[in-house]
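Table 4 source record.
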Amino acid sequence: MNWLIRLKQWILSLEKRNGTFNETIKGESRLIVGYSGNRAKKDKHNRDKGVRRLLKAYKSGNITKENINKPGYNKFLDISDNVKVIINQQKISDDENWDGLKGYITNTSLPAKEVYEQYNGLWVIEKAFG
C-alpha cells in the first residue's frame, strides 16, 4: 500500500479529542497531528457555507470558471468532458472526516504539544508583518 494512503488512514483513525497530539516519523521529519473541537466547528461552518454557495450557483445554472476556482467549490465537484459538472456528495462526506484535524511537519525535538502551540500562534506574528 502506498505510504500516503497509509498516512491518511492513520490520521483518520486517530481519536478526536481536544488536547491530544499524535505523531509519526518519516525520515528526519515528524508529523504532529492535533485535534480541536473549535477548529472542527469552523471547518464544518466553512464547508457548509461553500456547499450552500455551490448549490445556489448549480441550481441557477451559473457555475463559471471563477466559481470552480474558489476554495469550497472545486474539491466537491466532478468535471468531465470539460462541460459536465456534478456535485459529488461523497467528496463532501469524506471531507467531514478531517474536521478539527491540523498537522505540522517539523524536524525539531520539541514536545508535540509545544510544536502544535507554536505553529498555532504563528498567525499573530504573520499579522504583525502583514
